[in-house]
Amino acid sequence: MIFTETPLKGAFLVDLEERGDERGFFARTYCAREFAAHGLHPAIAQCNLSYNYRAGTLRGMHYQTAPAPEAKLVRCTRGAIYDVIIDLRPGFNTYRQHFGVELSEHNRRALYVPEHCAHGYQTLCDGTEVIYQVSEFYTPGAEWGLRYDDPAFGIDWPVPVTVISGKDRTWPYFALLPTPTQLDAGVNARAPIQ
Prior knowledge:
Blueprint: E1 2-5, E2 12-15, E3 19-21, E4 24-26, H1 32-37, E5 46-52, E6 57-64, E7 72-78, E8 80-87, E9 98-104, E10 110-113, E11 117-123, E12 128-134, E13 143-145, E14 163-164, H2 166-169, H3 180-184
Parallel strand pairs: 6-14
Antiparallel strand pairs: 1-2, 2-10, 3-4, 5-12, 6-11, 6-13, 7-10, 7-12, 8-9, 8-11
């Protein structure tokens, strides 16, 4: 695998090193040793599959806080997505910055999303399928999210949003949320910071 760090520290693009012959090719998509060698959280608690009927579908911006902050490895296996992460780590110089990249069945690229970063994507094709490995179990009490259209981040989604869940449409604005560090310390996630 080829690891390329994004502008957000600890977030990596992971490209395949294909070994091909007349049959096609073989490539490793995950290796705990290689991930650990790059300082990445190699544990896998769950693998998830998301199928999306229509282009323009938006899922996100999701993250989990303590006791279950999660890292993700995201790959589009059919169609294409515009994948975005937002750095919510207050001690990092990229705090509140975001990074977006196209992942597709053609480029076979993956995006490693570190803990305490919000993640979401928009489908660019009908019938898009996304698979992602996560380092923690889904924990409803630790689940949180940010608005996809929050002006605090200014994400430029490539196509109009055609489908979005009610939950994702109504996450609060960033200015009303505690930071992940405050959430980890027990601040009520549902109450705005004063």
